[in-house]
Design brief:
Helices cover 37% and strands 16% of the residues. The protein is α/β, with parallel strands linked by helices and 271 residues long. Helix 1 packs parallel to helix 2 and helix 1 crosses helix 12. The longest helix has 14 residues. It is globular, with a radius of gyration of 18 Å.
C-alpha cells in the first residue's frame, strides 16, 4: 500500500479531489491510504472527501491538529499555515508508519507513483526535486540567500522516511528559524526545509516527479527536443501547477490547462 499525505485548508479541497481522481485513474494496479492533516476543515468537508476515497477504494484518515504553535510562522493567502504541517509529519502521523509520500494538492498524477514510493533513499531522510529551469537563476540566488551548499529543493513532493524524521526534525529548531528569518522568507516552509534539512535530501529528477507545468518550453529546450508533450504524457508522473494563477482559475492558460480542466470536469461523475 502506498501511503500518501496531503496538508491543506478549505481553499484546496476541490484541487485535492482533482488530484485524487488523477491518482485513481492512473494507478489502477496499486492500493492507497490517504492521510489528510488539517486544522479547520468541517466534518461535512471531511465526509465528502471520505466519500470520494470510498469510490476509489482508497483508505482515508483525517487528522485534525491544533495549529496554534505555528503562530509565529509567516502566512498569506497563497501560503496558509497548513503548508508547514508536512514538516512535522513524523509527529502528526501514527508511529506505525515508516514512510509517507507527501504531494501538494495542486498537482495531477498522470502516471504511476510506484517507482517513487519504492525509491531507495540511500540513508537520506527525504527525497525531493529542484526546479532549475532553462537558465538556472533561482537556485544560485536561493543558495546565496540561505547560504546553502546543495540544490534548492521544492517542497511540493517529498518522500519522507518518518523514522528518521521523528529523530531529526524538531519543532524547536523550526520555531527558532522562523523567529530569526521568518520575515525574510520568500517561500516560507520551503526555505525552512532547505535551510535545516537540505543536506539530508536525496535529489530526484523533476521531469518525472515534480514537473513544473509553467515551463514546458524550458524542459523541451534543455532536453534538445526529447521532452515533448508525448514524452511528458508517457514518462512524467507528477505534474505540478506551481505559482499563480492556478489551473482552476480562468486566467490560467498554458499547454497543460486543458488537461487539468479535463480531470476537473470528470469530477462530476464522482462527487
Amino acid at each position: 500500500m502506498i501511503e500518501l499525505l496531503f496538508t491543506l485548508d478549505d481553499g484546496y479541497v476541490e484541487p485535492l479531489k482533482v488530484a485524487l481522481l488523477s491518482i485513481y485513474l492512473n494507478n489502477q494496479e496499486d492500493s492507497f491510504r490517504i492521510w489528510l492533516i488539517h486544522q479547520s476543515l468541517s466534518k461535512q468537508t471531511i465526509q465528502k472527501i471520505n466519500h470520494m476515497c470510498d469510490q476509489f477504494n482508497f483508505e482515508f484518515n483525517a487528522i485534525k491538529i491544533e495549529g496554534s504553535q505555528w503562530g509565529n510562522a509567516p502566512t498569506e493567502k497563497r501560503y496558509p499555515k497548513e503548508m508547514y504541517f508536512r514538516l512535522l509529519a513524523g509527529d502528526y502521523l501514527p508511529a506505525f508508519l515508516k514512510k509517507v509520500l507527501y504531494i501538494d494538492p495542486d498537482t495531477l498524477i498522470i502516471n504511476t507513483l510506484r517507482p517513487l514510493w519504492e525509491k531507495d533513499l540511500e540513508g537520506k531522510m527525504l527525497a525531493a526535486a529542484s526546479h532549475v529551469g532553462l537558465v538556472d537563476v533561482t537556485t544560485p540566488l536561493n543558495k546565496l540567500r540561505l547560504d546553502l551548499d546543495h540544490p534548492y529543493y521544492n517542497s511540493g513532493v517529498l518522500l519522507i522516511d518518518l523514522e528518521l524524521a521523528r529523530h531529526n526534525i524538531h519543532w524547536q529548531d523550526i520555531s527558532d528559524i522562523l523567529d530569526k528569518y521568518g520575515k525574510f522568507a520568500l517561500l516560507p516552509d520551503q526555505d525552512v526545509l532547505n535551510y535545516l534539512y537540505g543536506d539530508d535530501i536525496l535529489w530526484i529528477p523533476e521531469e518525472y516527479w515534480n514537473y513544473d507545468a509553467r515551463f514546458y518550453h524550458s524542459y523541451y529546450a534543455r532536453s534538445k527536443g526529447e521532452y515533448d508533450i508525448h514524452w511528458v504524457m508517457k514518462n512524467t508522473s507528477i505534474l505540478h501547477f506551481c505559482g499563480q494563477p492556478k489551473p482552476w482559475n480562468e486566467k490560467h492558460s498554458n499547454r497543460f490547462t486543458p488537461l487539468y480542466l479535463t480531470y476537473q470536469n470528470m469530477l462530476r461523475f464522482y462527487n
